[in-house]
Amino acid sequence: MKQGAAAFAAGCFQVVLVALFSLLPGELALRIYHHYEPQYIFVDDSYNRFRGKPFADDWNFRLNSFGFKDVEFSRSSDRHYRILGIGDSFAFGVVPYEINYLTLLEGRLQRESGQVEVLNMGIPATGPDDYHSLLLRERNLYRPRDSHWNIAGNRLAADIIGDHISHYLGSL
């Protein structure tokens, strides 16, 4: 009986060792790779999770150096009236840059008022809390005089339903 228990314990120890020496390096390799090329398999509550990669191609347009779907904009401008366009995929634009509503708005305001810039700071899969964080953290870099938040109905519904579900699950 003792030999059977010892053999079982040795087998379990071998399984643990094999799992440890195969899974640990795999996890470590994935985390190192994620550091340089972010992947969506790791949990991240930051609004930057789905932010575009700087200079990535999107339709027939290249994202700017900040990862936003807009032409390159300077950090500050005293010559222009600046408006920040903050939102989710509606603001980012799943359409070509030329027909994005923020690009069209900027063109119209420039025709009517002259020196106006609308900075598209849309990031897909974000919500009102993320908009607020983005505004607080990055607003002073661009010194806008106004900000426009695009809060789509689906984001509000997701946030409200998500809150109810989390409160429900928390009460279980």
Report on this structure.
It is a single chain. Helix content is 50%, strand content 12%. It is an alpha/beta fold. It folds into 2 domains: 1-42, no CATH class; 57-171, no CATH class. The strands form 2 sheets. A 3-stranded parallel sheet has the order 4-3-5, with helices on both faces. The protein starts with a helix and ends with a helix. Residues 164-172 have low confidence and may be disordered.
Tell me the fraction of residues in β-strands, as a range.
Answer: 5-15%
Which oligomeric form is depicted? single chain
Number of strands: 5
Provide the domain count: 2
Distance between the termini: 45 Å
pLDDT averaged over residues: 81
Major beta sheet summary: 3 strands, parallel
> In order across it, which strands form the biggest sheet?
4-3-5
Please, how many helices?
5
The Rg value, from CA coordinates, equals: 24 Å
> Helicity range of the residues?
40-55%
The computed structural class is alpha/beta
Topology:
Blueprint: H1 2-36, E1 57-58, E2 61-62, E3 81-87, H2 89-92, H3 101-113, E4 116-120, H4 128-142, E5 146-150, H5 153-171
Parallel strand pairs: 3-4, 3-5
Antiparallel strand pairs: 1-2
Name the descriptors.
172 residues; alpha/beta; 2 domains; two-stranded antiparallel ribbon; 5 helices; 5 strands; 50% helix; rod-shaped
Structure described in brief:
The protein folds into 2 domains: 1-42, no CATH class; 57-171, no CATH class.
